[in-house]
Amino acid sequence: MVEIIISAIFIASVAGIAIIVRRTMPRVQQVAESSSQIKQINLAESLKTTLVALIKKNPHLKDFSWMDFMQKILLKGRVLVMKAENKISDYILKLKKRSEEQQKKEATLLDNYWHDLRTIVKTKKLSQKKDTKTPTVKPATDLKIKTILPHETSPRPITKPKRKRVLHSQKKSPQNSL
Predict the structure, then answer these.
(1) Does residue 71 share a domain with residue 43?
(2) Residue 143 belongs to some domain of the structure
(3) Could you tell me if residue 50 is inside a domain?
(4) What pTM was estimated for this model as a whole?
């Protein structure tokens, strides 16, 4: 009976905790989202202000302008992209050359195939013309085959294998083996 009461109290407390967590989760998510946005904004702003302060302290960069700075960075990025594009186009040209060479090789192989086939056919025709000058051999169908009947053959006599004779003195008895 005590176990039932304790298990009922345990189940009720777990259910209460679940209800409380379910009600507070939307508020916790909103707070987490807003605080992460604030941190990101604050981090970017603080980085910008410290960078500007360092640049303004430098006597050579007192006339610092964000527009000029961003323009220089974008131009450098553009140059890097153009270099990458140039490398990619060179690689594409190499691949095209390789594929063209491969197609040429395949075309020559096919052309050689038909050329070789023609030469084989011509050589067979020439060999057939030469064979017509030589006497022809009768086909195997014209030959007569002699059939052998069973009574005409002389079968070997069937013999049983010989057994070795064992003398009584050579036999082992169970008493002698011990």
Answers:
(1) no
(2) no
(3) yes
(4) 0.31
Of 101, 129, 157, which closes a domain?
A: 129
Contact 52, 64 (CB under 8 A): yes
Please give the Cα distance from 62 to 72 (Å, whole number): 17
Cα–Cα distance, 53 to 69 (Å, whole number): 15
Contact 56, 64 (CB under 8 A): yes
Give me the number of domains the chain comprises: 2
| Domain of 10, in residue numbers | 1-64
Q: How far apart are CA 50 and CA 44, in angstroms?
A: 10
Q: What angle do CA 48, 53, 63 make, to 5 degrees?
A: 100
Predicted pLDDT of residue 165: 66
User: Rounded to whole angstroms, how far apart are CA atoms 23 and 20?
Assistant: 5
87 with 79: CB under 8 angstroms?
no
Q: What pLDDT score does 37 carry?
A: 64
Residue 31 lies in a domain: yes
Q: Which residues of the chain are under the pLDDT cut of 50?
A: 142-143, 178
65 Rama class: left (phi>0) / alpha (psi -120 to 50) / beta:
beta
Q: Distance between CA atoms of 112 and 118, rounded to whole angstroms?
A: 10
